[in-house]
Amino acid sequence: MSKPVNPYSIGAFLVGSLVLIISAILVFGSGQLLKNKSQYVIYFDSALNGLNVGAPVKLQGVQIGMVKEISIELDQNATRISKPVIIEIDSEKVLDFGGHPLKVASSLEQRQKNAQQLINAGIKAQLQTQSILTGLLYVELNFYRNEPLNLTGLNYKDLPELPAVPSTADQIKNTADEIITKFRQLPIEDIVKDLAATLKEIREIAVSDELKKNRAVLAKTLDETEKLVASLNQNLTPLLINMRGTVVDTRVMVQDFTHEMRPVLLSTERTLNTATDVLKESKQSLASVEALTASDAPLWQSLESLREAANSTKTLTDYLERHPDSIIYGKE
């Protein structure tokens, strides 16, 4: 008869197995479950071919996380499709300037605040190619301050949203599509018809008789012009030689005239200098004469005294003529 199974042994076995499984996860998972991680949602407009769960998330080439989930949402009217991509960032791989890991937000409000800080800094997500051979993609976070900010405003699992920018391939494709669209809008048929009509008119003009006559007249005119130029060269050469000789003679004459006039100019300069000295002396003499003829000058006073003496002599002479006997008897 078999021995009954002890339920306590079964329970202990299950508990021990569970402890071993948790320990294995902690050991072989390198402590991934205990790390502080932040999750964000990103909406990409382009196709997600090549983007898989577990793809790297890099910040300027440095891996800081991974793609956690890729989903697709379709509204009831089937008019809009959204593709939320959840990324998980390891906070221990993003340090501040003090070397400390960034703090993980515990509340929705704090997560939204952290996301807004990243958005204000210009952080945007873009799909990049890991390998051209495999076609696998990864999410690149970088500063795209000049790119427009596009946020859907959708709520997916209460996760904060980060903006996305088109990939390089999508930008090239969009530019090519715009060029093709503008090219299709051109009236190609009308342009071709106008070009054909223009070429036809050019051909008719090229084979017309009038153009042939104009060519003959032009050739004749060119021949006559060539003959005229040759004649002018033949006739103008002696004239140019004579003009050259005249110019040389004139230059020699000017040089001789300059040579002869130089002594005359020097003599004239000396004469002018002498005249200047004479004028200076004359000016000084005039100043002396003015000083002598002044009213308070000694010469003027002497002349006044001499005039008074002459008047006195004249008066005495007149008196003696009338009274000659006054010399003997004296003045009465």
Write up what this structure looks like:
This protein has 332 residues and is α+β, with helices and mostly antiparallel strands. It folds into three domains: 34-166, no CATH class; 209-292; 296-324. The protein contains seven helices and nine strands, in the order αββββββαβββααααα. The chain has helices at residues 7-28, 108-121, 168-185, 188-206, 209-292, 298-322, 326-329, and strands spanning 37-43, 56-59, 62-70, 73-74, 81-82, 84-90, 123-129, 137-143, 161-162. The chain has a seven-stranded mixed beta sheet with strand order 7-8-2-3-6-1-9, with helices on one face. A two-stranded antiparallel sheet has the order 4-5. β2 (56-59) and β3 form a beta hairpin.
Strand order of the largest sheet: 7-8-2-3-6-1-9
Note the total helix count.
Answer: 7
Sketch the major β-sheet. Answer: 7 strands, mixed
Number of strands: 9
- Head-to-tail CA distance between termini: 216 Å
Q: What low-confidence regions span 5 or more consecutive residues with pLDDT below 50?
A: 30-34
**Roughly what percent helix?**
55-70%
Can you tell me the number of structural domains? Answer: 3
Structural class, by secondary structure, is alpha+beta
- Sketch the topology as an H/E string, one letter per element: HEEEEEEHEEEHHHHH
- Report the average pLDDT across residues: 75
Q: For the CA atoms, what is the radius of gyration? A: 61 Å
Approximate strand percentage? 5-15%
Shape: elongated
